[in-house]
Amino acid sequence: MNIQPTISYQSILRAISERTGWKSSFAADAAVFAGLLAILYVLFASGRIWFAPFTPVANISASPRALPLYAAYSLVRMTIAYLLSILFALAYGLAAAKSERAAKIMLPLLDILQSIPVLSFLPGVMLAMVALFPGRQLGLELGSILLIFTGQAWNIAFSFYASLKGIPRELDEAARLYRFGRWQRFSELELPFAAIGLVWNSMMSVAGGWFFLMACEMFVLGQRDFRLPGLGSYLQVAAGAGDTRAILWGMAAMIAVIVLLDQLVWRPAIAWSDKFKFETVEGVAPQSFVLNLLRRSGILAAFYRTAVQPISERVTLAFAARSTSRGTETRSVRNEVREWFGRVFGGLVLIAIAWLAYRALASMAELGRAQLILLARDAGLTFLRVNAALLLGALWAVPAGVWIGTTPRVARFAQPLVQVAASVPATALFPVLLLLLLRAGGGMGVAAMTLMLLGTQWYILFNVIAGAMAIPTDLKEATRVFRFQRWERWRRLILPAIFPYLVTGMLTASGGAWNASIVAEYFHFQGETLSVHGLGAAISRATDAGNLPVLLAATMVMSLIVVTMNRTLWQRLYKLAATHYKLET
């Protein structure tokens, strides 16, 4: 009897992989090498401009041929600002999560910073950077990067803080049992547990950077006009001139960059972060062609073995040795040192705040009672628009985010779409949107509300998607086994699981709405200024006129509103999420 060998589909793929493995490795190495060359070239070209003589008013070409170079310049600024945002978020989130006393000050302060519009940071940041590098373009470039940073950092910091507070008790006890040092705990518990939230909030933060790129690359400060070559300045020049053709070319270039980033950066990051999902049953993992290609690269594998892995091991051993040596100290001595350090640092911060408050009050002393009453009215109107935008954004973003996050097939095509939609600056489309709404009889008030919604809803959507993707597969299977109905499934699994992410999304969306008010309530169009009453319009008008007292007063009023909301609402919701909706056994 002849026995025919069984040839399976997997064996065929394995044989093909073995025969063509060297080809795929060569292709991966070639792609990595080409990517490194492209990055080095862009950095070299950007460096030549950065260290060139100072030219505050750059000539922004309206030709589509200039768009590739403008896109590269903007991408470099966005990347540097994002790296700074990640470092800030990790340090700030860790400090706030480790100390309840510090969190009472740090969280409201972070909420204030993420709610203050970019234009409120603009005068101090730009004048300081230009004065620091008076003869070089470097000052203007660093100022633009720091302004982009102010539109990215706060969202990532809130996400990391929320993830740290949501670490399950059993994982925390395991880390204590095995005596993890600070570095080992950070690298093997805290950072992996927060990976999914960090990736999705990084996508949202970068999208927010694209959203405010127009304000960060071209702005007017009193009688001085600052311009930097980039996509943001290109779109702002086109929007100000009402050049629809240039707007479409600029939007097409920005969408092309966003799609490339999605394929080359974010989709591989999402596929990589899926391995950190807290579950006992393996689900369907997202795939990325670029990630698979990089994993086959011999160059990256050799670099990891010879450089990354040895350095990581040495750092881990160094921190472990330091932790062991510190273990001989008494706990009371360490607590006393920390307490004294905290007192000294807190005292210095209070002195700096008191001095700045004194200077601000002295500047605002020029304002009359009538101006203060107008600011109070403007604050009330903007407050109503912000909360209406939050409500409208949550009504559609929560179900849509759960649908995308729990359905891998939908996520594959929906993720790049929402990434593009969130990144497209609504200010570039605002002229067309404004004309349509004015013709429909909506008026500037409806247009401002629409623009604030466009700057708000994506924070909620991205956080809900991250929360839905982090739901363990075994819990989903349990709801199917027990045949939960749709509403019961939402009530017992989905809403409790996404609640911490939803709180972060609503909080950062609130800051996004306050930020968006500066362009939603005050807009330059074809030589005219269209505005409605509101705090954002007051800030934009004061920035255009160089009126520092009104700018400071409007920013202070906004800060008071944000602090009140943080103490009365957001802190309580964060505490509820950390105590009642933590994923643990």
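[next item in queue]
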Amino acid sequence: MSVTVQRRLASPDATAGLGAEIALWLRPGDFLALTGPLGAGKTVLARAIVSALGSAPEEVPSPSFTLVQHYPELRLPVAHFDLYRITGAGELDELGLDDALERGVALVEWADRLGDALPPDRLDVALADGTGDDARVATLTGHGAWRDRLGRGIDVARFIEGAGWSGAGRQWLKGDASTRAYERLFDRASGASAVLMNAPRGPDGPPVRDGRPYSRIAHLAEDVRAFIAVDRHLLALGLSAPRILAADPARGFLVVEDLGDCLYGGLVASGADPAPAYEAAVDALCRVQAEPPPARLETGRGHGHVVPRYDPGALLIEVELLIDWAWPAWLGAPCPADARAAYRDVWSRALDALAARDVLVLRDFHSPNLLWLADRSGAARAGLIDFQDALIGHPAYDLVSLAQDARTDLPDGLERFIIERWMAGRPPRLAGLARTDFDADYAVLGAQRAAKIAGIFTRLAVRDGKPSYLAHMPRVLRHLRANLGHPRLAPVLQWFHRHLDLDRAPERLAISA
């Protein structure tokens, strides 16, 4: 099955614009087949795609004589092939097409020379002369997995136009580890910008327990309505969540306010004093926690989002990600049933002992999702994103997410500064939480989160082909070991001593990566 759309290209700039748009759709392993007669614009389009992935146009020569040109340093590694001079199938083997697809994207001019060797999952772009002066027509055909992707790409372009951003520039933005994709839209004339969120509703996945998939047990957001609901709530509290400028919840498209690029991780890495930024983040957290946790949040037009609880089932299935993914990656075999049962038992007892103090938990309250807005004041200086998985849970969860960052090494003393700032500014409704109980709960939730992330980062590397996340594993395991030192977690620590030596885990991870 395939799907086909046509674009009229009235000028070379229009051809370059199409190339930039196609570049936004690309993923590792993609095959782009460019066809058309001599002079139809295949190389112009190829150069535009490569340039949009990170290279200047003058750095994109035609591979007519070299047959292949490699660009390993782009956002996605690209191998640009020109098969015009190919005369036999044996020459194709020498070009390394299969290797290129394993590493990144294969961009192939005169791809029709491959005949039956064309991969079933591909995007065909056929260029031909049009009917106007110097106009061309591009016929895009998505085969296999590209069928739905091409259709969604066209839907995105129509949504952007309907949202009032027709003709806007589109720039890829690095996103999170989910299926969501982000772009910066910018008006070339005024300089105004916004952020596009492309969040398709994903499949639930296979059942993993009691007939339910992981996403349901862990209470992950199913569509953008959860983001809309939490966003409205945070804005009502006077916090800096992005204002929603346009929305199509049914298809998972949003245009939201652009809060800039000053992520907390970059601020820490720059060597600037991070204390004001983390003060604002803690103050924002206190403002969220001052309100009784809402069981339902409105999304508008009479619709609402039920906020789930961070119940024991969700906490436990998250912590099991370590033995589901990290254990076999480290030891080369699945976790035995008796060790798994013991793991669930010690964690169940630790989680059951958490003090009951319900707040709205934003869940991923850490440096990749916080932006420093120096021109604002108070708690609003902390820009908040990626909160669609919010739920009702313990006040220490977001605090430990902030202070024990999985992606960034915080300066010495900053974790203690964050905790003391929260203790001094926590809302009256949490004043009854004794410090000793809080410290124990903080350690339990810190260990739970570290174990979960160790599993997630391994899953991203092993299942999803994203080994870069393993670079953060030593930091995550340091957090895990530090938290396991709390007396409340002594049974969990004993389990690790008996079954899984964390001190050797980084060595095994380096080998597996």
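[queue empty]
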